[in-house]
Amino acid sequence: MTSAQVDQQHDGGEAADGAAEGGEGYQRGLGTRQIQMIAIGGAIGTGLFLGAGKGIAKAGPSLILAYAIAGVVIFMIMRALGELLMYRPVSGSFSEYAREFIGPFAGFVTGWTYWLFWVVTGITEVTAAAAYMTYWFDMPQWLSALIFTIVLYGANLISVKLFGELEFWFSMVKVTAIVGMILICVGVLTIGFSDAAGTASVTHLWKDGGFFPNGVGSTLMTLQMVMFAFLAVELVGVTAGESKDPKKVLPRAINTVPWRIAVFYIGALTMILSVVPWTSFHGGMSPFVKAFQEMGLAAGAGIVNFVVLTAALSSCNSGMYSTGRMLRDLALNSQGPKAFTRLTPSGTPLVGTTFSAALMLVGVWINYQWPGKAFDYVVSFATISGMWAWIVILICQIRYRAKSDRGVLPKSEFRAPGAPFTSYFALLFIFMVIVLMGIDKDARVSLYCAPLWGLVLAVSYVVLRSRNPQAAAFRKR
């Protein structure tokens, strides 16, 4: 596939004229096929393959409803993002919109928070990927983590097209696994093959204590882990500055959100819980592994291990990609070191990606040396920092819609249906989830970390603004 290129900038100055529509020196090397799979894969991760077992044990079959409700809210968020992207498709995405519609400080906070989200996520995922490798190979975890990090780092520096190809195939593995599981479960329910044929029945969805076996309250408490499973779905917005035809490709990708959630979450869980009673699940158990075991498929554990390995590497790959772009956007707005503006000849942010990859390696080492509570607190912060991006997207869309309706700004070609009311509803839903996090003692630590990070950013911004007034000025490129 030929990469549509724009004029590039290698010295950290302003983007060339050829990148006027959001490229900012990047190459528009991501095609329709890659963007579609990035969008699909962004919503499928270890939260489904491994984390859903805990949700099933807590809420029973009603977890399906929790995913459906959260999925509607995610679609509202993505349509709000889509409206902003069609107004101005830029690689900085949420940070750029925050800077324009809320203020320079909001852009500063959003950029650095989203960067930290992906660094922490990259650390945890590359650590997990190394652990998954021990299923097949007797090799030190640190060695696997080092190899994975170096390979993904190198791929991200070569070209954005290679990043897109990796994400395409990572996502293809996850999609194939889920579709395969659904088809097998349908076969068990209709044709009656496998060891589970005698007990499999859709009545499992309501006969073991009802659809809400532990009450509606338990279902509500699963909303936090359900929303966490959708973190990274907004990554498609970061690709805007490097999409070949963003105004055509991105709306298509965003409009696939409902069927993605319907098939990969609601469909998969409905099939699994029809084959295996919900009472068979517990926290730490993959619903996919359990379903394979019930059907007598001995290779199931190995298949799921390969899929979760792929999901972890996909997340690391996404982290490498997004962190470099966020750091460069901050630097271009005088809110980060100027060195982060440097691009490779292939149009990838060299210094920002290298800096982030180095931190991921240090984080992996720290995790192995001191796997204590301090590291757990940092990891838990990733959840609340990811939701911050959603809040910023919704606020920016509300303010953009108000300005465009008044004629101050041009109207987007991809307006969010029902906005701004849908955006207000999504904000209320997110705040409800945050309240639920405060009630749940296991998730509460995320809220403890947020004020500390906010204080660090506030002090940093004051110091930065005093040294460089440009940090507090918005420059629309």
Automatic annotation (TrEMBL):
Domain Amino acid permease/ SLC12A: 35-466
Transmembrane segments: 37-57, 63-81, 101-121, 141-163, 175-194, 214-236, 257-278, 298-322, 343-366, 378-400, 421-439, 445-464
Pfam family, one: AA_permease
Record's protein name: Amino acid permease
Keyword line: Amino-acid transport, Cell membrane, Membrane, Transmembrane, Transmembrane helix, Transport
InterPro entries in the record: AA-permease/SLC12A_dom, Amino_acid_permease_CS
UniProt subcellular location: Cell membrane
